[in-house]
Fold this sequence. Notes:
The protein is α+β, with helices and mostly antiparallel strands. The protein folds into 2 domains: 3-211, Sandwich (Jelly Rolls), CATH 2.60.120.280; 218-314, Orthogonal Bundle (Arc Repressor Mutant, subunit A). The chain is built from 12 helices and 10 strands. It has helices spanning 3-19, 126-132, 141-152, 169-182, 188-211, 218-228, 235-242, 246-257, 261-279, 284-291, 296-307, 311-314, and strands spanning 27-29, 38-40, 50-61, 66-67, 69-77, 80-84, 90-93, 97-101, 107-125, 159-163. Strand 6 and strand 7 form a beta hairpin. It is globular, with a radius of gyration of 22 Å. It starts with a helix and ends with a helix.
Amino acid sequence: xxxARNEAVAAALTELSERFPHLHWDFRPDPSGxxxxxxxxxxxxxxxxxxxxxxxxxxIDERFHRQxxxxxxxxxxxxxxxxxxxxNNRITLHCGDCYIGQPYSGYAxxxxxxxxxxxxxxxxxxxxxxxxxxxxxxADTALLRFFLEPQKNKYADEFIRLTLPDGSxxxxxLDLMLVEYVEKKDDSQKILKALTLSLLLYVARxxxxxxxxxxxxxxxxxxxxxxxxxxxxxxxxLASHFGYHPVYLSRLLPRLTGNHFSTLVTEAxxxxxxxxxxxxxxxxxKIAALLGYKDSSNFYRAYKSYYGTxxxxxx
Length: 315
């Protein structure tokens, strides 16, 4: 990174860390369900879908709270502790780690010297997340379930922890976003939302790689590829990816998995269909398109055959 770029990023971090104590810290009790936890409202401006914040120091002792937005906290420099509601868990985030939290998941940052730490937060409004980013992230079923869970279970309290290598493009994107957010222009939100999409796609790639077994079996590798590309995969493209002839692969799949190619694709699509129907307000036609069906009537027939009910009855 050129020195001028380093200086711009350093200046942005300094500016955001100075703003940090003066953000819109508004903790309100949850008005629904009779719960007493405090809910942190959106910290950015009303017209912002994406915002960045930064803490720098040797001591932070946040009150335990929940927040009404998605967030990704990056241990940009140094270590800190994250207190979560999941199993009363307190984990240490080391430099290079990323903590991803759902709306309403319990959380608090803790740090008590002596070394200084820098924590960068990327915050995304719920509505903007589902509008802008749900579709591009829908390939990985496990990740999709994580992001959709709060729609069904408000207090899901799940989180994701990733360790990102120094050379990850995520850090470069984050640096660009820091400078863009501080040096705000009229089109900054458009740029930030585009950068956020790129960052989230790299996060999805890192998450998938992190979830893969060290040495997946041939059956696992084939099924994982089908699940990730269920909207576009063909027998020919699957064979090409793994270096097989399509005819040989069509005979190999039943031996390895117990199912033919078309059955594996349908199963992968139906698992995602259930997630979309249970957790979103997307139309049947939109869900069909997301799953790779060019005609929604084909989706209806496949769903009815698989689940014994129609998508509309499920929705």
